[in-house]
Design goal:
heterodimer; A: alpha/beta; six-stranded mixed β-sheet; 19 strands; globular; B: mainly alpha; 75% helix
Chain lengths: 401, 277
C-alpha cells in the first residue's frame, strides 16, 4: 500500500456546551469560575489513514462529525486527544473568498487570498493569468470585489484556492458553486488533480458525485468511525443505512421506498433472444413492476454497476423524455440499449420507481438483476467499457524528428 | 518559539495583510492617506488651545535645543501615545474582526495582530517624519538623534505588540475587554506626561512627602512605562539630549517583558481560537 498522505491517529475532539455562556466579565466574576458546561464529543477515537493519491470521501449524517474531522485535518481545530499527521502541502476549501477585503480590487485580493492560503508572490505572479481566466472575471479584475456579483465573488475565491496546487486538498461541499460551465471546469480540475497523484479529501452529501469521484471512503456516525475502506462498499452501505425504511426482501435483496409500486425483477435480454450477451449487442433492459395501488406519473430509473460496485451508468424515463401517465397492477417497461458498450464481466442492475419530481421513492431495488457479458467481435484489453475500437492508418516516417 | 517560526514563514502574508489594512482604511475618501494626518493635527490644535492658551501650561524650554513651542513639545509625546492606542485597539479587534477567516482557513493567527501593528507603525512613521521635518525647520538638531529615535520606536512597537497580543486573546474570551480598555486608556492618557511636564508631578510629590516607607508619589508615577517612553522621545526629539539611563533601561525591560509574556499568552491560546470565536 502506498504511504498515507494523512494519518489520523486516535483523534477525539470534545466541545464544551455551555449552559449559560459567559462572554462577559461580569458573569465570570459572579460565578467565580468559567461557567458550567457539558462535554460533547464530536469525534471519538477516530483512526484512519488516507492513502496518497486517493480521492477520499467522508460521509455521514448531519452532526456525525465529518466536518469537525475535516477541520482537524485542516489545522483549524486541534484534537483534544490523538493527533493528525499530514505529509505534504495542504489547502482547504472550506469557504471560498472568506479572506476577501470588499474595498480592495480583485487583483489585490488574489494576492491577499493567495498568501493566506500559503502561496509565495512569484508563484502567484506566475499563476495570476490562469487564476483570472479560470474565474472568468477578467473585465472586472481592477474593480473592488464588493461590486462583484455573488457568483463572481465565489468563482474568484474558488479559483484562487484551487490554484494553490496542494498535495492534499480538503473540500467541504463547495463543489456546487457557479453555473454549469464553471462546475464543468471544476470537475475537470479535480480530475487533473487526481491524475497528478494529489490527494483529495471531500465531504459531501451528493452521493452521485462522490460515487463518481471517490476511491476510498470513511463513514462516521455520531463521531465514531463506522467503516473505512474502498469507496464502493462503504458508500453503498452508508446509502442503505440512510433509508430508514430499508428492507431485505424474501430473495435477500436490499430495497427501500414507500411501496405503492415495486420493481419485481429486471431482465437483460439480447436482441436476438439468445441467452448470452456480447459486447456491442443491442440489449433490452426490461423492468417488471407491480403497482399495488395506481401510481400517477411514475419515473423509472436504471443504473449499472460492475460486480465490485463501480458506478457506471444511470438513466431515467423523465430525463430520457418518456412520460408515463399512470401505472396500476403488473406490467413492464423496456429500456433499449442499441449497442452494449461493456466488456466481458458480470454487471449489476439497480432499478427504481420514483415520483415525477424524483424526490419521493416508491421503490428502490439494489441488485435488481445481474447479467454477464461475453466478448464481441473485437477483443478489448481492459476496463469496463467496450468502445469497439477500429485501428487503422499507420503513418510512419511522415514526421521527421 | 513556534510563534517566531510561524511569523518568519509567513512574511509574505504579513506584507499582504498590512497592505490590506493600510489600503483599505481610506478607500473611497477624497483625501485618502492625508486623513491619517488630520487626526493628530486636530488633537494638536485642541490640546494646544486648552493647555497652552487657556490653562497656560509652561513646560521648560528644550535643553540644550532651546526650543519653546508647546505644540511641538506636546506632539513629541502625543504621537507615540496615539500609536500605542492604535496598536492596542487594532490588535484587540484583529482576531474578533477576522472571525470568518480564522474559522475557515489555517494560517498563523499571530499574523493578524502583527499586521495590525505594522499598519499602525506605518502610519506612525509618516507622522513622525512630518514632525521631524517641522522640528528641523524650527531649529532642532534632530539628525544626530534619529538612529536612537528609531531604536525607541522599535522598542515601543514591541511593547505595544506584546500588550496587543494579550488583549487580543482576552477580547476573544470576554468581549467586555474592549470597552474596559477604552476607559483604561483614557485614564492612562492623563497618567502619562503628555499634556503636562513631569516636573509638576515631582513638585506635588515633594510637597506631599513619602507616602509609605520611602516610596513617594513620583516613584509610583514612574512605574508607568508609557511615561518613560514619553520622556525619552521628548529628550531625543525636543531637547536633543541623551535620555536618562533609568528611562532607557525601563523602556527596554518593559518592551522585552511585554513582548515575551504577550507572545507566550497568545501561543498558549492560538490553537483554540477557532473554537472559541
Amino acid at each position: 500500500m502506498s504511504p498515507a498522505a494523512v494519518s489520523v491517529e486516535n483523534v477525539s475532539k470534545s466541545f464544551r456546551i455551555y449552559h449559560e455562556r459567559n462572554q462577559t466579565l461580569k458573569a465570570a466574576v459572579m460565578r467565580r469560575r468559567r461557567s458550567q458546561y457539558e462535554e460533547f464529543w464530536a469525534l471519538r477515537d477516530v483512526a484512519l489513514e488516507i492513502p496518497e493519491a486517493s480521492t477520499f470521501a467522508l460521509v455521514g449524517d448531519n452532526g456525525s462529525g465529518k466536518s469537525t474531522l475535516l477541520k482537524c485535518l485542516a489545522k483549524i481545530l486541534f484534537p483534544t486527544e490523538g493527533r493528525v499527521v499530514t505529509r505534504g502541502r495542504m489547502a482547504a476549501l472550506l469557504e471560498v473568498g472568506s479572506g476577501f477585503h470588499p474595498e480592495l480590487s480583485g487583483r489585490d485580493n488574489i494576492y491577499l487570498n493567495g498568501s493566506i492560503l500559503g502561496m509565495k508572490r512569484p508563484e502567484i505572479d506566475r499563476k495570476f493569468d490562469e487564476i483570472v481566466a479560470f474565474s472568468g472575471v477578467e473585465r472586472f479584475i481592477d474593480q473592488p470585489v464588493k461590486n462583484y456579483s455573488s457568483g463572481m465573488y465565489v468563482r474568484l475565491g474558488f479559483s484562487v484556492a484551487i490554484h494553490v496546487e496542494p498535495e492534499i486538498l480538503l473540500v467541504d461541499e463547495v463543489l456546487a458553486v457557479g453555473d454549469a460551465a464553471f462546475q464543468e471546469k471544476c470537475a475537470e480540475k479535480f480530475a487533473t488533480f487526481k491524475r497528478e497523484g494529489r490527494t483529495v479529501v471531500v465531504v459531501s452529501h451528493s452521493m452521485p458525485s462522490l460515487r463518481a469521484m471517490a476511491d476510498h471512503a470513511a463513514w462516521l456516525e455520531h463521531g465514531v468511525l463506522k467503516e473505512a475502506g474502498p469507496a464502493a462498499g462503504v458508500l453503498e452501505r452508508y446509502l442503505d443505512s440512510t433509508h430508514s425504511d430499508v428492507q431485505i426482501d424474501e430473495q435477500g435483496r436490499v430495497r427501500w421506498g414507500s411501496g405503492e409500486a415495486r420493481v419485481r425483477d429486471v431482465e437483460v435480454i439480447s436482441e436476438h433472444g439468445g441467452a448470452t450477451l456480447r459486447s456491442g449487442d443491442e440489449a433490452i433492459v426490461r423492468i417488471h413492476f407491480d403497482a399495488k395501488e395506481p401510481v400517477e406519473k411514475p419515473v423509472f430509473g436504471l443504473a449499472i454497476e460492475t460486480s465490485d460496485g463501480t458506478y457506471l451508468w444511470a438513466s431515467n424515463t423523465r430525463d430520457a423524455g418518456l412520460s408515463v401517465d399512470r401505472i396500476s397492477g403488473r406490467g413492464s417497461v423496456d429500456c433499449r440499449l442499441p449497442s452494449l458498450a461493456l466488456q466481458p464481466g458480470t454487471f449489476v442492475v439497480l432499478a427504481s420507481i420514483v415520483d415525477s419530481t424524483t424526490t419521493h421513492t416508491y421503490d428502490y431495488l439494489r441488485d435488481a438483476g445481474r447479467f454477464s457479458v461475453d466478448h464481441g467481435p473485437v477483443r478489448e484489453s481492459g476496463g469496463p467499457m467496450a468502445l469497439q475500437p477500429r485501428w487503422s492508418g499507420v503513418r510512419s516516417g511522415v514526421e521527421r524528428a | 518559539m513556534s510563534l517566531v517560526a510561524d511569523l518568519r514563514d509567513s512574511r509574505e502574508l504579513l506584507v499582504n495583510l498590512t497592505r490590506r489594512e493600510v489600503k483599505g482604511k481610506y478607500k473611497r475618501t477624497a483625501l485618502g492617506q492625508l486623513w491619517s494626518l488630520a487626526n493628530p493635527l486636530a488633537q494638536m490644535l485642541i490640546f494646544t488651545v486648552v493647555f497652552s492658551f487657556i490653562i497656560r501650561m509652561e513646560p521648560d524650554p528644550g535643553d540644550p535645543s532651546g526650543l519653546d513651542i508647546f505644540a511641538l513639545w506636546l506632539m513629541c509625546a502625543l504621537l507615540p501615545w496615539t500609536f500605542f492606542t492604535a496598536v492596542v485597539n487594532g490588535g484587540m479587534g484583529a482576531l474578533v474582526g477576522n472571525e470568518n477567516l480564522i474559522k475557515k482557513v489555517y494560517f498563523p493567527r499571530s499574523t493578524l495582530v502583527v499586521a495590525s501593528t505594522f499598519s499602525a507603525t506605518y502610519q506612525w512613521s509618516i507622522e513622525m517624519v512630518v514632525l521631524a521635518a517641522v522640528l528641523v525647520l524650527v531649529g532642532s538638531q534632530l539628525f544626530v538623534w534619529l538612529p536612537l529615535v528609531i531604536v525607541f520606536m522599535v522598542l515601543l512597537a514591541c511593547f505595544s505588540l506584546g500588550i496587543a497580543f494579550m488583549l487580543s486573546v482576552a477580547n476573544v474570551y470576554f468581549r467586555d475587554t474592549q470597552h474596559f480598555v477604552a476607559i483604561l486608556l483614557q485614564i492612562w492618557f492623563y497618567l502619562t506626561p503628555i499634556v503636562y511636564p513631569v516636573r509638576l508631578v515631582a513638585e506635588q510629590s515633594a510637597s506631599i512627602g513619602p507616602l509609605f516607607g520611602s516610596v513617594t508619589l513620583l516613584d509610583l508615577y514612574e512605574l508607568n512605562p508609557m511615561g518613560r517612553f514619553a520622556e525619552v522621545f521628548r529628550n531625543l526629539m525636543y531637547d536633543n539630549r541623551w535620555p536618562e539611563l533609568g528611562d532607557t533601561v525601563a523602556c527596554a525591560v518593559w518592551s522585552v517583558a511585554a513582548l515575551l509574556i504577550g507572545a507566550w499568552v497568545f501561543n498558549r491560546h492560538t490553537e483554540r481560537l477557532a473554537e472559541v470565536l
